[in-house]
Amino acid sequence: MNELRIRLGQNLGLLLAVLLFLTFYLVYNSLHPRGFSATVLVQNANESFVIVAVAMAQTVPVLTGGLDLSVGAIMTLVNCVASVVVNGSPLQMLGGIVLCLAVGTLAGLVNGLVVVVGRLQPIIATLATGAIYIGLALFIRPSPGGNVDDDLSWALTNDLGELFATYGLFEDGEAPWLAPIAWLPVPLLVMVAVVLLVWLPFRNSVTGRGVYAIGSAEGAAYMSGVRIARCKIAAYTLGGFFAGLGGLYLALQTSSGNADVPQAAQYTLNSIAAVVIGGTSLMGGTGGVVGSIFGALVIRAIAFNFRIFEIEPIMQPLFEGLVLLAAVSIGAARVFRVKNRLELLG
Amino acid sequence: MFRTKDVGAPPPFLELVGVSKRYGGVRALEGVDFACRRGSIHAVLGENGAGKSTLIKIIAGVVQPDEGSIRLAGQQVTFPDPLAANAQGIVCIFQELSLMPDLSVADNIGISNPPRGRLGLIDKRAQRRRAEELLARVGCEDVNPLERVANLPLSRRQMVEIAKALGRDPKLLILDEATSALTSGDVAKVYEILKSLRRDGLCLLYISHRMHEIEALADTCSVFRNGRHIDTFAAGTRTSDEIVQLMIGREMAHVYPDKPQRNQPPAPVLEVRDLRWTDRLNGISLTVGKGEIVGLGGLDGQGQRELLLALFGVLRGTEGEILVDGRPRAPGSPAQAKRKQTGMALIPEDRKTEGLMLPMSVAENISLAALGGLVSGPFIDREKETAAIERMVAKLRIKVGDLADPVATLSGGNQQKVVIAKWLLTEPRIVLLNDPTRGIDVGTKQELYQLLRDLADAGASILFYTTDYDELIGCCDRVLILYDGRVVRTLEGADITETNIVASSLNLPGAGAAATA
After folding, report:
1. What angle do CA B220, B223, B224 make, to 5 degrees?
2. Which residues of B touch A224 (CB under 8 A)?
3. CB-based contact A112:A232 (threshold 8 Å)
4. Does any CB of chain A come closer than 8 Å to the CB of residue B86?
């Protein structure tokens, strides 16, 4: 019981984000003409994947007390790379996917090196590298277009049944044992797999623990023998990987690449909002990727509701802003516990 | 046949030879030879600024010596960072806690070398069991390993810090004021742990200002003074008085203005009754009279800074009474504290962050606190402002090329003068000073002493915290010694001597009586 209380207390931000998401999403589904259906779920999962991936990418640097203004740019760069390389024979496609993820990871690694070795402030370092990544994206894809394998695109942006049907597996996805789970959207499964296979192991590694320690108290972490440089570089690199995943998926979803500069900036800003709504402190040290996933889903769910209520889309930023402000205000309640007013100023 | 050299005491575990360290122009350590052995508790003693902290930091790999070498178990070693020192079994418990507040107790204890399971990932269960074992070893079964460190009271945090250090299997354990925040029950437990570690053959370096702790624990004592190793002797071979003399051992270096002779105490201006704040201020009462300079003494961190901040309205949740001219005037913020009816000014400890706006000009810095009196209508009156600034520059003899230059371009002493000028412009009746002469040159120091005396003679009441005992003796009409957030001694007139100050600061039981007699 006591243990439960402690664990809840340490995850209030996450809980708040989950509650907000459920509220908005239930309202949306109950008013949607085809609400609570697999079709709607698949569509929503597709629309959410990229912002979720970019929010995950933002979370890791923020946990160290940093910030990554290049996540939208990395996503866009990988999107453009994918529109060139993800086609051809199965082996070529596999190589293309690996290349895409490698480009994202490499971009993150460069960010980490610039921040750690160059000793630049993360906010300005990633503003600069982000511009470079966008520049590369425009170089690869000066105008929207490209070629992404249609089967792969279809298979990965639909439900599990369609995935198997596309490649003629398990009786074209009609096998009886498959029926109970055939409706699950592939993007949702991919996201769960990434969390289980990438994020949770990282969080429980020594390096991941160091990321939290640095954000909590960098001096104390250094004095405790935490390898500061390695942890910070790892944080930005993992961020690059997540952003690359988002870019790859955007290519599959749109079957093309587009070096859209305003869109990249929009994704970056939304990623910061999602991180905050998800309960990760911008000072670092507390929170995590799972919270940011729900933070991103809150932002998407608000947008879904706008379609249902037929509110002018121009109202959307205003409403998103209000939600962000409310979420941040709850996080700021710690102010009432501070005894030395000087500590509020840092 | 036999080499006689090896007969007798075993070689020291840790040995420093000719170690020196400079910070800028300041010599923190100079030619220090130092050794400590296995199976012993070795106390390191010295005044504030004697070089103890630098010594520890060098041993722990936090800073690197400019000269000299370190030998560990007979092998020459260098420690580029704390990690390298850890790898050799050197573990430090610092005065400033090295815990990460947002991580859980178990995560903190396991941070340097967590138990790993499959795939090299942290085994959380094993980590939690280990944390529970270590907490039990230091008698903290009541601390839940899943609790966030930020939620623990300071005394528990310090025990977690000790548990964390034990979990790293130290060969050489350094405790820097590690008992400062502990309850007496915890202190007894820590004593037992340290004694058992000594039996296990560890080498323990113990830094403490508390003489009774050193008498209870230490086998060997080393005294440091002004960055030099003065003497090392077996515990119990010197009296407390002799140790205090070793720690002081210097002469008055500065010239101070004469103190006024008073036949009766001055009229009180600032009165403080039973001031309390968290566990740092435990019922402070004091009075500062008109024209009086009252010194705050004692070891670092006994509540002096908090007292000044509380008076100036920076701390929230203070209890007790603050009266100015007999009326309750506890300020709720620095803005309230500087209003005419209170008339306080605080010269802060760190002029670079709390005293000055470094990128702003000298002129803008000087007039900032007094702008309310330099207006005509809603606008700042440029002529009045310039006149006031020039008056201050002349009065304090601030050496400045152009008043429009950024204040960052001035020397340390002149920067401090700018901070003081800023507050003098508000015509304060109560001046609070937090270690104002730290890091400034001797000439400027003397000007400041004269200025303080002139202010007092003009009717201001001054409360002056300094870590320099000379200044307490030379400048102050009375000196209050703080210990553990309380005033433990008031020294007056001829009783303000270095021996009395040091003895009272260490809160030696006999010292108070001797000084009063």
Report:
1. 140
2. 82, 98, 100, 111-112, 164
3. yes
4. yes
Q: In percent, how much of chain A has pLDDT > 70?
A: 96
Amino acid sitting at position B45: L
For strand B430-434 and strand B344-347, is the pairing parallel, antiparallel, or unpaired? parallel
Which residues in A lie closer than 8 A to residue B116 (C-beta atoms)? 206
Cβ pairs bridging A and B (under 8 Å): 97
Give the tens place of pLDDT for each residue, A258-310: 999 999 999 999 999 999 989 888 888 888 999 999 999 999 998 888 888 87
- B115 to chain A: closest CA residue: A206
- Nearest-5° Cα angle at A263, A260 to A266: 155
Which of A62, A340, A344, A345 would you mutate first to test chain B, the one with the most B CBs within 10 A? A340
The tens digit of pLDDT for each residue in B341-369 reads 999 999 988 787 788 887 788 998 898 88
The position carrying tokens 């429009």 is B404
Strands B40-46 and B220-225, bridge-based pairing: parallel
CA B415 to chain CA centroid, nearest Å: 22
Q: pLDDT of A223-248, one tens digit each?
A: 787 889 999 999 999 999 999 999 99
Cα–Cα distance, A240 to A101 (Å, whole number): 9
Asked if B307 and B481 touch (Cβ cutoff 8 Å), the reply is no
* Domain, as residue range, for A116: 9-332
- Give CA–CA dist A294/A302, Å, rounded: 12
Dist. CA A278–CA A26, nearest whole Å: 19
Question: pLDDT digit string (tens) for B21-56?
Answer: 987 666 788 899 999 999 999 999 887 667 888 899
> Is-same-fold flag (B8-248; B266-343+428-517)?
yes
Question: Cβ contacts of residue B297 below 8 Å, gap of 6+?
Answer: B466, B469, B472, B479, B480, B481, B482, B491, B501, B504, B505
Nearest by Cα to B12 from B78, B86, B73, B79: B73
Q: B137 — contact with chain A (CB < 8 Å)?
A: no
Residue B77's SS3 state is: strand
> What are the C-alpha distances in Å from B446 to residues B26, B376, B430, B443, B475?
19, 38, 21, 5, 10
Q: Does A2 fall in a domain?
A: no
Nearest to B102 among A210, A222, A285 (CB): A285
Output the pLDDT for position B96: 65
Question: Using the beta-carbon criterion (under 8 Å), do A338 and B83 form an inter-chain contact?
Answer: no
Q: For the stretch B122-141, what's the b/e string if a residue is b when 16 or more beta carbons lie within 10 angstroms of its beta carbon?
A: bbbeebbebbbebbebbbbe
Q: For the domain covering B266-343+428-517, report its CATH number.
A: 3.40.50.300
pLDDT digits (tens, 9 = 90+) for B429-471: 999 999 888 767 667 788 889 999 999 999 999 999 988 888 8
B354: closest chain A residue by CA: A342
CB-based contact, B80 to chain A, within 8 Å: no
CATH code assigned at A179? 1.10.3470
User: What pLDDT sits at residue B214?
Assistant: 84
Write down the pTM of the prediction. 0.77
Strand B203-207 and strand B268-277: the pairing is: unpaired
In Å, what is the CA distance from B203 to each residue of B38, B43, B200? 4, 11, 9
User: Sign of the CA dihedral A250, A255, A257, A260?
Assistant: negative
Nearest to B144 among A6, A212, A340 (CB): A6
Looking at the domain assignment, is residue A340 inside a domain?
Answer: no
Contacts of A205 in chain B (CB under 8 A): 120-122
Using a CB-CB distance cutoff of 8 angstroms, which residues of chain A are in contact with residue B102? Answer: 212, 215-217, 281, 285-286
Residue range B8-248, CATH number: 3.40.50.300
Q: Map out the domains of chain B as residue ranges.
A: 8-248, 266-343+428-517, 355-427
Residue A93 reports pLDDT greater than 90: yes
Domain count, chain A: 1
